[in-house]
Amino acid sequence: MTIRSLCITAVAALSLAAGVAVAASYPEAPIVYDKPVKGVVFSHKTHVEKGLACDMCHNRLFEQQAKKAQENKDFVMESLYQGKYCGACHNGSLAFASNTRCATCHIGVKGEERSKTGGKTEKKGH
Asked: Which CATH superfamily is domain 3-116 in?
């Protein structure tokens, strides 16, 4: 285990100890990015339940404003592969690598539509 992994594990353990305060302060609804491609989902809930504290990402990797990162020209998969944004943790050591399990985050246009309608799909004629 690397020093970085140990530090993140320690922060996660402290975050779990303060779980009530952390859990009360994050947006429940998933964020669905639409740039540079539509339908990329991020869930604060999933990450908080794994013991991550807000300051592990915010003001270091991401600003507090939802979807602000998608305005950056380098908010592309290649940057994640280089350890930026989600790729800081999704590197294959701390969390699944950004170049694996694509459908975990990339829900696509239809998935984005379902996320807006609560999972209901509208049937259209052919």
From this structure: Cytochrome C3 (3.90.10.10)
